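>> received
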Amino acid sequence: MKHKTHLIPLLMLFATSVFAQIPQTMSYQGLLTDAAGNPVAGGPVDLTFKLYDAATDGTLLWEETQQVDVAKGLFNVILGSSNPLNLPFDKQYWLGITIGTDAELQPRIALTSSPYSLNSQTAANTGDGHSLDAVDGDPVDAVFVDAEGNVGVGTTSPQSKLHVAGLLSVEAEGDNSVILFETASGKTATIGVQDDGDEGFFVYTNDAYRLNVRQNGNVGIGTQTPTEKLEVAGNIRASGTIETTSGGFKFPDGTVQTTAATDTTGGGGGLSSVTTDATLSGDGRSGDPLGLADNAVTTAKLKDEAVTGKKIADGALMAGQNVTIVRQGSGALEVSAAGGGLQQVSTDATLSGDGTSGSPLQVAVPLVLTGSAIGVVQGVHTNGSLGFLGSSDYGAYGEYTNGNQGYLGSSDYGAYGLHFSSGNRGYLGSINYGAYGRHDNGNIGYLGHASYGARGEHDNGTFGYLGSGNMGVFGEHKNGNRGGLGSNSSGAYGVHTNGNQGSLGSSDNGGAFFGPDNNGSKAAVRIRSIGPGGTEQTMLLDGNEIDAVDGTLFLNFNSSGDVVLVRGGGNVVVNTTVVHSSDRRLKKNITTLDHALDKVLNLRGVSFEWKKDGARNSNPQPGVQIGFVAQEVETVVPELVKTDSEGYKSVAYANVTALLVEAVKGQQKTIAEQNAQLKELRSRVNKLESQFSQTAMLNK
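>> returned
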């Protein structure tokens, strides 16, 4: 007797990986029963599986027949094992099943979400990034995203945020096809093709068209409608040569010049209308420049003091023409205009030559001036200013009419200067000072004293000095605050008038010093502060520890800035419990984390090696590390990421614990629900097995 067979679908799972080389298969489990609902007997059964695009009728998309083993009505099969499921799984499919030569079982079974993970075949993780293949598989890695977030189209090694290997097409939106660029500060620039009847390429910035290339080849800079091959609305500056091979230069008056000016007629280049005579010579051309004729300029034609030394270029005057130098009885030399050459100068043991170009005036022997007056050489201006060289008191002396004076080489000073009206004065090279200066308000300063290398004193009593017998550097304010560096008792010393004091490099004066620790056994640095009342706080630092000897050690107590413990390659080792402040009284807006499991699943744990990055990471820890990438974590759980003032990001690893706790709780809830479902399925299977056993016993 033939029984009508029914199929009860039990479980359909997608059995594959989401990475590259995805097998196109799907796991299916069912229970075959007879018309009474009893499981069919065991043995091999031919089952045909078909996928359609509709619940009834529709198009057959895939088909496969397998012989499966049935035990107490139960069977398992891997769909796609003989005919791969090469379907995109981008829409709803229905599964039809036929037993042997019977009609297809009704109704068809709608596929649930699990098989649609086959769609992930086009998104694969390559280890160096994520890739996306074409729908038909060719090309492979059509789109690639690397670990830095760079996107490559047609390339798996993008060099920028978007790297396109091949042609990039931009379709029109409205009348223009454009690409817009924008900086972080909001400045924009647009390039594109304009459709205005004479389509062309353009560059647009700051609300204006900067460059236009029309279809006819005309190029406009600063204009949108060029009428020539190159039209510029504005000035042109060139650092090289501007060359025209034909045509010429057109001027605003409409004239065109095709060659350089070389003729001497009207409008040409030379000054043909200038007659060369005793005054002018040349016609102004490059080969015959305009100049003054010989003897054109005479004394009568020059205004008094019109020609000065500053107006005469070096080498412009040559001796031998109208120059006379006469030695007077007093020894002075008088220069006057006379005939050609220095005919009135007799060449003797002192002078030689007559001043002409062929025989210039020269000093035959070293010229020595002597005298017993105020100075061997002296001069007095009509305004009263005077100066002299070689007096009995000064090597050089000068005095302005207002009383300002200065001299070099006196018996007291190497150099001395006095401002008359203010009384400010200073000198160099005295018997007491290498350099000395005094303002009329009483401020003084000097270098090279017998007691100080340098000293300065304000008239209010504030003073300081360098290089004394007791201190390398010392300063004292008029209120009594003082401090010094490099004394015989400390490296650095400071005292406030209220009694606060401190020192560095001292064994007994507070501040900080190098010496033994509390046990007197190890080298250490002791930092000690002494208050006005004599209260003392001490911190001891040696090679292995930091101890707050007299109380609690605080780091960053009054600041909201970061505390960087390790910036090189070392580790921070703590041999006791590290606790974080977490008192409810210090918190507000307390809420339970939601979607914790989803966030954990979206996090990526990575292995990596630190890069050497100058002062930021000058001595990185070697070897492979594990952890997160802050930029990736920030997109999932931004509360875990902090960004410093330089833009570098850090992850609060300890805070991940709270997220993991809620994620585990959420996962446990899901497991409990699944266990309940499995328990129910197991109960149903046991019931079916019991029914099958009873039926089998009745059939015997």
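>> DSSP finds three helices and 48 strands in the chain.
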